[in-house]
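Handoff note, outgoing to incoming analyst
You'll be picking up this chain. Sequence as last confirmed:
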Amino acid sequence: MVEIDSNGQNGYAEDPEDPEEPFLVRIGKKPTMNYVVACVTLFNTGVPEVLVRARGQSITKAVEVVDMLRRAFLKNVTIESVNIGTEEIKRDDGSIASLSIIEIMLGS
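Most recent structure output, in case you need it:
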């Protein structure tokens, strides 16, 4: 699995424990084009599926990334599935907060 996260830690090696897991682009606070380029790079290396994942306020950016990717860069990319849900996060003060998540599976 490849994780490209918001703090700049990029990895381009598959997880040997789970070869069926798709490559992952985790949307964060970086500019939208950084994530579009990450998706294009993964597809150009021959990856058949890319999972775009975002939480909270980054959900809008995830949708923008997928739309821009399909409209301007890789017109043959299809949306395989869209999953939405809620994660419960424990805050520093001990309270529980609900955080929305979206996962968009893209196929070539």
